[in-house]
Task: structure prediction
Amino acid sequence: MKRLQALFIGICFILLLLFFGVQTLEKSTGMSGAKVVNIYNWGDYIDPELIDRFEKESGYKVNYDTFDSNEAMFTKIQQGGTAYDIAIPSEYMIQKMIEQNLVLPLEKEKLKGLDNIDPQFLDLSFDSQNRYSVPYFWGTLGIAYNDKMVDEGAITSWDDLWSPALKNNVMLIDGAREIIGLGLNSLGYSLNSKEQSQLQEATMKLRKLTPNVKAIVADEIKMYMENEESAVAVTFSGEAADMMAENEHIHYVIPEEGSNLWFDNLVIPKTAQNKEGAYAFINFMLEPENAAQNAEYIGYSTPNEKALALLPKEITEDEQFYPSDERLAHLEVYENLGSQYLGIYNDLFLELKMYRK
Amino acid sequence: MRKFRWSHIYLTIVFLLLYLPIFYLIFYSFNTGTTMNQFTGFSLAHYQALFADSRLLIIVLNTFLLAFLSALIATMIGVLGAIGIYYNKKRWLKNTLLSFNNVLLVSPDVIIGASFLIFFTMIGSWFRSFHLGFISVLLSHCAFSVPIVVLMVLPKLQEMKDSMVDAARDLGANSWQVMKDIILPFLTPGIIAGYFMAFTYSLDDFAVTFFVTGNGFTTMSVEIYSRARQGIDLEINALSTLVFLFSLFLVIGYYFISKENRSKRLRKNRLKRKKADLT
Result:
């Protein structure tokens, strides 16, 4: 019994120590009594300095949580029980959330700086007139290649992936929309196609790609490319930016047939309890200096036109990440296909994954 | 020369497999570079970054706070539960309770997590002030730790001779005294083992926590998982190194707690034998 008592007291002591540790740390990071803004964002998707500065400037305290997929975020918000004031989903998920009444319409008069955003990133199909969302970052799907294994400039289009020289040297990102979309794009079709015949044609073409495919992987693709495990990878622009930062031999191209243009936007979920704080945060992120700092930290492209002027020239003139307007015009945004067609895309992709050359 | 044994080689390979990844990770936490591709030189920069990242530190402290506290609560409930099950008169009820306990042990974390999420959101819809956060995580960690504690304590109870309790009763002890002076001291090793098991379970749980976190409360596993998408920073290596060392200390501490007990018993037995020899 004595030993149990000693153990019990010891544990209570440790608990108190930990509790006060957390308290003092929280106090040192900000005003613990202040009103809280709950932010739900992708992992490592904001410059931590910006959060500190926002806390200092606005007097709100930020509770920052992270998620790893649109679907996980959707479930958490749909279930309720959380009180996120800001979430940052991708475009197709925003459309779905609007349809399910999970986001609040924006009160435009409270937004300051929406006109900093490049007009071509506003009023898009998934959220017309930006009634619900404000652009945060955008990017493309494209091809990253290593110039040690592939001649520089040899890859310009999706069709180049089919080249016999690339046998067993292509990695694909594990996403049904991305890969089936690539097949559709390479044939000149829309990547939101709902035509059965086009989809069939695209999968038949993709089957011919299988001898070249080394692996279909998710986020590890970045690591593999940095380690030069593969010559070519189909991946997102921000991932490519990271690869290029680590390995100077890597280049990124947006295929000329067209590709996917994606967005991650700020929304205010229905569960928000501190709307004032949410607007304060959106306005804070719309400020050109903050958007520029964030873009430099994360490596994705900012939709903030005035921030572009503040970024170093070598970033903004990089066609790989800030493509010309005519190239941009070729790019398409994913639309929410509805569960039926999403199912068809998933099935086709699954069949493709199981297909043996 | 010692005899050559295949079993030694096998054991060596197993331990290498288990520990190499950890040492590899620890090694790279001292890298000057920012990736695990190449070791470019020795530096403590990642440890500095770790100690400057107060958000991560809060998460780590919270994780341990949660583990210590949930294990404590689960141990109290679990010990009482085990005693309750053991002293149940009806055999069928005893077996049913034990089976229910075992079902909870083997049911997948994901299922437990999902059901807790649904349960807590239901509570949240009744009481507006209830939100997912520390309390919800604490409750679910307690819940999945209780069956483990029960399982660790029950064998000790079965080992205990009922005659001891009867004797205490005959000498006029009341229930509280029986509990305090006979049962609990006898169960102590089981309780300590149960506590540490519950502690580790809580510390490394990802699936359940993933579902029930919210409103600014996260644990290490959830945070590292969502960071992994962007590629894990060497800061995480530094953190893992520290946590690994901490667990090592914990295991050593546990070893001494349980060893002290054993050696006392050994000494007593030796003394008894000596007395027997003398007479």
In short: The interface with chain B takes residues 1, 3-4, 7-8, 11, 14-15, 18-19, 21-22, 25-26, 28-29, 36, 38, 42-45, 48, 63-68, 76, 79-83, 219, 222-223, 226-227, 242, 246 of chain A (CB under 8 Å). Residues 2-29 of chain A form the longest helix (28 residues).
